[in-house]
Design goal:
The chain is mostly helical. 43% of the residues lie in helices and 9% in strands. The chain has one domain: Rossmann fold, CATH 3.40.50.720.
């Protein structure tokens, strides 16, 4: 999950792109990067349905639902997309991206090689369709650019 605020992969990549000419990024973990904005919008849509006078509340709809963008990509491909789209806006040259294996970037928390989740249940129950990760990324980068007014991203 990432967004225009806080501490997350997108903002870290934008910062590092201004500081370095080369970035080593994990390329063997697949997922669907999801913006906090998309999760908030989907959650608001679900709550609006549940709280509507004729919404029926949770009747038969309680449980666990996944909210992730559609599609799939690796961390390295996600970084490439976000840096390519934002280089001109923030005045940096896209660094040389070196794909690495998870084992080359040890972390204290283990991450799955495949973290894709199905959003079929939320679509069937509430009619909520999450956007492709590429669309969500473009929207977040637009939000950042509007708020930056030429300044560096956070």
């Amino acid at each position: 999950m990432y967004g225009a605020r806080g501490s997350n992969f997108l903002l870290t990549m934008l910062r590092l792109a201004r500081e370095r000419t080369e970035l080593r990024i994990v390329d063997d973990q697949i997922g669907a990067p999801t913006s906090s904005e998309c999760i908030a919008q989907a959650t608001a849509g679900i709550l609006a349905q549940l709280l509507a006078p004729a919404g029926g509340g949770l009747d038969g709809r309680s449980g666990i639902y996944n909210l992730t963008s559609t599609g799939e990509t690796s961390w390295c491909e996600f970084a490439k997309a976000l840096l390519t789209q934002s280089a001109a806006t923030y005045g940096f040259t896209v660094p040389n991206l070196i794909p690495i294996k998870t084992s080359d970037y040890p972390r204290s928390a283990k991450r799955p090689a495949n973290s894709r989740l199905s959003c079929q249940r939320v679509a069937e129950t509430f009619g909520i369709m999450m956007p492709p990760w590429e669309v969500a990324l473009s929207l977040v980068l637009e939000t950042l650019a509007e708020g930056a007014s030429g300044d560096n991203p956070r």
